[in-house]
Amino acid sequence: MMEQYLALKREAGDCLLFYRMGDFFELFFDDAKRAAGVLDIALTSRGEHGGEPVPMCGVPVHSAESYLARLIRAGCRVAIAEQVETPDEAKERAKREGSPVSKALVARDIVRFVTAGTLTEDALLEPRRANTLAALCEVRGRVGLAHCDISTGRMVLEECAPEAVEAALARIGAREVVLPDGFDAPVEDAIVRPDADFASDSGEARLKALHGVATLDGFGGFTRAMLAAGGGLLAYLEHAGRGTLPFLLLPEAAQGEAHLAMDAATRSSLEIIAGAKGGREGSLLAAIDRCSTGAGARLLAEDLAAPLTDRVRIEDRLALVRFLHDDPLLRADLRGVLRAVPDLARALGRLVAGRGSPRDLGQIRDGLGEARRIRDHLGQQADRPALLEASLPKLGGHGALVDHLERALVPSPPTERQNGGYIAQGYDAALDELREVSGNARRAIAAMEARYRDETGIAALKIKHNGVLGYFIEVPSKHADPLMAPDSGFIHRQTMAGAVRFNSLQLHEEASRISEAGGRALAAEESHFEELVDTVCEAREAIAATAGAIARLDVAAGQAERAAEGNWCRPEITDDTALAITAGRHPVVEQALRAAGNERFVPNDCRLAPYDRLWLIGGPNMGGKSTFLRQNALIVLMAQTGGYVPAEAARIGIVDRLFSRVGASDNLARGRSTFMVEMVETAAILSQATERSFVILDEVGRGTSTYDGLALAWAVVEAVHGTNRSRCLFATHYHELARLAESCDALSLHHVRAREWKGDLVLLHELAEGPADRSYGLAVAKLAGLPKEVVARAKSVLDRLEKGRAETGGLAAGLGDLPLFSAALKAQEEECDSLRETLRALDVDALSPREALDRLYALKREAGED
Ligand code: ADP
């Protein structure tokens, strides 16, 4: 057995091997240790290998899914080795091969690899989160990216420049990434597959074969790089499914530039999809998701991960949100109906993948039925926006299929097929007849019980059924004797502690009738099931389109609901570089403050324009600088997603790239030196931000010494202002930077207001114009509960420092002059140079003392001193 196990383990590679033994999946060696740790189950041992006991643990087959879910969540991949023959078959084989029959080992094979990116089981998937698998490779200097969610069949092919890979991967947010051998990409835990899988020709051939088409031209322009990545993705899926491919729709070609570009650092610092702790909690998504369906929530996450840059498309989405926002009754109706819509896309995914159940068919029926009702209802509304108009046809068109499924299925079909009972009465006359036969026989058996009681006079006689004996007659032991007589008409079957069990000819006949009819009925239901699945699969593209249209409506209804709840506004989208937000709020912080119930969020304006595009924001710690920066970035992002925004009014010139950076000390958890990270990230902004970009920089430069930090912050502001010319909010506690306002004409100074009141600091969280007057560091420290003596001591140190600063001109003495007075500096230098020339020309030894004195007076005059 170990030999077979080890061979399979070699095939499984770094996946944990689930080795089927009877009713358990067993794990051995290191696999067992790892799984036992993750699952918190007992680690035992079995036999020995190489003189050592073999560590082992196991999970029951019937509850394997929940264990799999935990292993996958912990980052493991699992190979499932099933028994592929019965013990009898194994014995037969042994006989044929002439090996000892008693030791015949059941053949096993890996039937599937379960990995984070290849899940379809309902129990293993999160309803409100897409499950994306991505593959990428490079072809002639371009990177192809293929990604799919096999739980819904969606597949997208795209292409980008090598330097844009990181941002694209951050947007896609794949659970699992596949790379060709030798390709270096910024991915942790990637799955490496043979380079040959990523050839564009075979990729194209695979895609054509999968969709049964002779050409892919009709589906969008796919480049070589896209096809190569697509091929790699399909090859991996084939490998994971051991030859069977999951459900995939026709691939879409994505246009890379159609999205607001954000790199991974920006995404995590804005906490868009995931909060600081990595989960949904605290994220923008959690704060705005009011979707009624899982599919809607997944689409909203996708929208937020890839906001648009095309004004018309954004406005289309906004018009749909407005339509539902302005009509609360319609919205409430729609959301009510949507709540009852099952997850069509995932049910379809399971059916096409061959893992569907009667319940999935029922969900298709119900979902399509609801879609039709939604279409009829919305189709009657006046002034329908374009996006709704485009969705309506996708919601219908399934009349025949829905009718068919309605006739064929019982109202709530089960998830299991083995007991039948899911095909409705009246759908198939032959099936009904078989059911009647078994029904009659069951009734006959019930009647038989009464008759036998009469005939034998044993009131306690019962006819029962179990899995081993089938139907049998049971009487208490004390009454059994008469039935034991050879001519009693009863045949003895089993003697129990207190009862004896019998059979009879009539019972046997009726029971056979039931089992025969039951078996045939089951087979009939099975064939109907397959035929229904085929019918659904034929319509898969159209069903997927319906699912997509419902999800889009759900997102819009959820956005409208959230907007109404928070009194949000519809942003105006323009093609210029304006950014004018009136009374903007941070959706997550505002919600948190409200939940805590103690404080009201203070709204703030933000007005950037070409002549005033960089705001330098000072003020005390905890004053609300970061919050202000992020709220504006989030408002831009939400607007370009096509949603309303938390503000009184917003005018947003479309942003091409969004950057968000936080000074090093805020994210200490990373491996690299934090200051290094900060600088690497800042370098990325300086090289990529454009005049259309929006950049928020929070305390950049604080990860190093004061002088270095100030110098870097200074230079970064100058570069963003003068070279990138992006719209930018820059929060800083370096007062000295205020002097930049003298040299940078499109830069203005702002601060978050604070007041000291009776010796205590009051943070107003209100933005005002002008530089911050002081830093209030000690007051914040006091607020934070630093001991009084320490604050007092810090105060005397500060006084000393400030005195020193007053005498020397401070940390930035002379800095303000740097760019502004550069011309004056040059003139000064030239003057010095003429003095130097005169000195150099002087022959000191040839001078008399009197002459020397005269020259000295002359030089002093030249230097400007009389
Ligand atoms: P800073 O970046 O200036 O140190 P933060 O933006 O981190 O300050 O804000 C600190 C805290 O102040 C936040 O956690 C929040 O609770 C509160 N806060 C920030 N902005 C506002 C606001 N506009 N209205 C009310 N409370 C705010």
What brief labels describe this structure?
6-stranded mixed beta sheet; 46% helix; 866 residues; alpha/beta; 29 helices; elongated; binds adenosine-5'-diphosphate; 26 strands
Query: Helix amount, in percent?
Result: 40-55%
Tally of individual helices: 29
Proportion of residues in extended strands? 15-25%
What ligands does this structure carry? adenosine-5'-diphosphate
Taking the sheet with the most strands, its summary is: 6 strands, mixed
- Structural class, judged by helices and strands? alpha/beta
User: How would the global form be characterised?
Assistant: elongated
Distance between the termini: 106 Å
Using only CA atoms, what is the Rg?
38 Å
Low-pLDDT residue intervals, each spanning 5 or more residues: 666-671, 819-827
Strand line-up across the major sheet:
3-4-2-1-5-6
Mean pLDDT: 87
DSSP summary, beta strand count: 26
Characterization of the model:
With 866 residues, the chain is of the alpha/beta class. 46% of the residues lie in helices and 18% in strands. It is built from 29 helices and 26 strands. The chain has a 6-stranded mixed β-sheet with strand order 3-4-2-1-5-6, with helices on both faces. The chain has a 6-stranded mixed β-sheet with strand order 11-10-7-8-9-12. Bound molecules: adenosine-5'-diphosphate. Adenosine-5'-diphosphate binds next to helix 21 and helix 22.
